[in-house]
Amino acid sequence: MGLVAGKDYELVEASRGTLGRKEVVELGGQNQVPFLVDDDIKMYESREIVKYAKLKKEDFLKTK
To answer: Residue 41 is part of which domain span?
Structure first.
């Protein structure tokens, strides 16, 4: 949620055969995208990523 909270974020090209895909495997252990890393949270499943993003957005808005 870097865009919402104003934190730094990095978008990595992770197509097959790229260094980004290698990084995904090294960080998470699976050769699968999408892949989200937020501090110590790592997840692959699109639905779970969306749920997590919504939760993080709600948490951020409550602190304002």
So the answer is: 2-62
- pTM for this entry: 0.72
Quick check: 35 and 43 in contact, CB under 8 A? yes
Determine the Cα–Cα distance for residues 12 and 45; give it in Å rounded to an integer.
17
Q: What is the C-alpha to C-alpha distance for residues 2 and 11, in angstroms, rounded to an integer?
A: 11
Q: How many domains does the chain have?
A: 1
Encode the chain (64 residues) as per-residue pLDDT tens digits.
344 556 667 889 999 999 999 999 999 999 999 999 988 999 999 999 999 988 887 766 665 5
Rounded CA-CA distance 52/36 in Å is: 10
